[in-house]
Design a protein that fits this description.
Length: 81
């Protein structure tokens, strides 16, 4: 949910991933790694320029990030699935 909110709020950036930071009795905090697809350093780097493709827009809304895949149950293989 945190990735989706951040992706909607800053639509010009792409959500790469997120990770848990802290929690208390009421809230959980996550840090979200977002990438500017129009930055030259991102476009020229062959390891990360896949995120510049148009098909990678709003990955967080389609459950393609690590947290989204976990929520969809795609980490379990075999009998547990």
């Amino acid at each position: 949910i945190a990735e989706e909110r951040a992706g909607r709020k800053i639509a010009s950036l792409r959500v790469l991933n997120s990770y848990w930071v802290a929690q208390d009795a009421k809230h959980k905090w996550y840090e979200i790694v977002m990438v500017d697809p129009y930055h030259n350093a991102i476009r020229n780097d062959p390891r990360i320029n896949w995120i510049c493709k148009p098909v990678m827009k709003h990955r967080e809304l389609r459950g393609l990030t690590s947290a989204g895949r976990k929520a969809r149950g795609l980490y379990n293989k075999g009998k547990r699935a």
